[in-house]
Design goal:
The protein has about 425 residues and is α/β, with parallel strands linked by helices. About 35% of the residues lie in helices and about 15% in strands. The chain is elongated, with a radius of gyration of 25 Å.
């Protein structure tokens, strides 16, 4: 950590030194200059609202007495083979908790950044720019199932809840078992104010108990049933060993399309920036390979603001690493595409990365990659036309592999910031307001 002395609100003497997490200044600069923002949120981000992380959800007496872990409870068999009272008790309690907990201030700050820094400019809208690749843009990719991005007012068309959400429930019947074939893809939303009636001691949702604020023909009982086949409903959440999860394919498609637009824009802008630099320096392609790019502005050229993407990885740990892995995949894909045009693009990349990842995590903010594999591409510039890709033979685990051996870490793409997500976001926000 580093200490940053901040001036008082009246502009007088410096106030007492405020402790700022290492990496926060770099994140503030990246957000201030960024054109694309990917918010990748895991359980640690929700934890700052007071919600439990994965390892703590089942750490209560009722489940410990039964010898049940989170992994045991998050299986679909509980709804139709094991004990529906346990299943609805666990997910009903989770639903109630998520609904009774307000999203923390970090959501509001992120929305403010999006509105002021990563939304299409008025000029683009007035000009009728139909080509979104020329505009600033953002997306949220999260494994959290609490639905808090929706509750916080984010445009749901730009939020991908990759593991689903308890805001929606689906039939628990396996494929082909529900007489209404279309029902296999249906999801149902509980009415506003609905709460499961959970026994506080046993954490069971007893069938004969009446839920709170019931409304309509579906959510009028403590164990809601499919209106077509009368089997139990279950949360529209990806469970362990799940074969019946109804994924939001439209949301996933929108995210994939957004990622493609972002990478395409960065690839095109990288190539045009290199050509502009060559023209400004009045040199040939071979010279640029050995030219140390200066920190100063290139005579007012657009190179002083190279198009960049910023990824805020918020509270994504290693217990369920799906979002963490996706972030690294996006970073790798972006780097490879920017290198693909020419080695000149790679030269600029070394000074101004086209994508930067800020891994904000209280306990797992390490900068190495989650799963380095045997095909970890190493890029080395040799001349103006050749990019040599070498494959690493080391497939050892992240904590055993030197950081320098991984591409993202070697290029300084991943920057770890150890701390709570909300605290870090507030620190970044203060710097952006200066």
């Amino acid at each position: 950590q580093v200490a940053v002395r901040m001036r008082s609100a009246k502009g007088g003497k410096p106030a007492s030194a405020a402790v700022v997490s290492r990496g926060v200044p770099a994140a503030a600069v990246a957000i201030a200059r960024g054109d694309f923002l990917l918010v990748a949120a895991g359980a640690g981000f929700s934890h700052d609202s007071g919600l439990p992380v994965y390892k703590d959800i089942a750490r209560v007496a009722a489940y410990e007495e039964k010898g049940l872990s989170y992994g045991d409870l998050c299986r679909e068999v509980w709804f139709h083979k094991e004990d529906p009272e346990v299943a609805f008790g666990f997910w009903g309690e989770s639903y109630n908790l998520y609904k009774d907990t307000n999203p923390h201030k970090g959501y509001t700050i992120l929305k403010q950044w999006i509105a002021t820094r990563f939304s299409p400019k008025d000029d683009d809208v007035r000009k009728g720019s139909a080509n979104r690749t020329e505009q600033r843009d953002w997306f949220v990719y999260t494994s959290n199932v609490d639905g808090h991005f929706r509750r916080a007012g984010f445009n749901i068309d730009q939020v991908c809840e990759i593991h689903g959400s308890v805001d929606f429930w689906q039939c628990s019947a396996r494929s082909g078992q529900c007489p209404a074939k279309d029902n296999q893809k249906k999801v149902y939303s509980p009415p506003v104010g609905f709460r499961f009636n959970i026994d506080r001691k046993s954490l069971l949702a007893k069938r004969d108990s009446k839920p709170l604020n019931t409304k309509g023909p579906i959510f009028n009982r403590n164990q809601p049933q499919c209106p077509e086949c009368r089997r139990s409903l279950r949360p529209n959440v990806m469970l362990f060993g799940d074969t019946n999860f109804v994924a939001d394919e439209q949301s996933e498609d929108r995210y994939v399309e957004w990622e493609e637009r972002m990478e395409l824009t960065l690839e095109r802008k990288e190539h045009s920036s290199v050509m502009e630099l060559l023209e400004f320096l009045n040199c040939d392609t071979k010279t640029i390979l050995y030219y140390s790019l200066p920190e100063k502005d290139f005579g007012g050229s657009s190179l002083s603001h190279s198009t960049q993407a910023v990824v805020l990885e918020l509270g994504c740990g290693l217990r369920v690493p799906s979002v963490r892995i996706e972030v690294e995949t996006v970073a790798r894909d972006t780097l490879k595409r920017c290198h693909k045009k020419s080695s000149l693009a790679s030269s600029v990349l070394r000074r101004v990365p086209k994508i930067q990842v800020f891994r904000i995590n209280l306990n797992e903010a390490d900068e190495c990659e989650t799963k380095p594999n045997a095909f970890d591409v190493q890029i080395e510039i040799k001349d103006e036309t050749e990019v040599n890709e070498e494959k690493s033979n080391d497939a050892s685990e992240c904590n055993k592999k030197p950081i320098e051996q991984t591409l993202l870490s070697r290029l300084g793409i991943i920057k770890g910031i150890k701390g709570k997500c909300l605290d870090t976001i507030e620190q970044i926000h203060k710097m952006l307001q200066r």
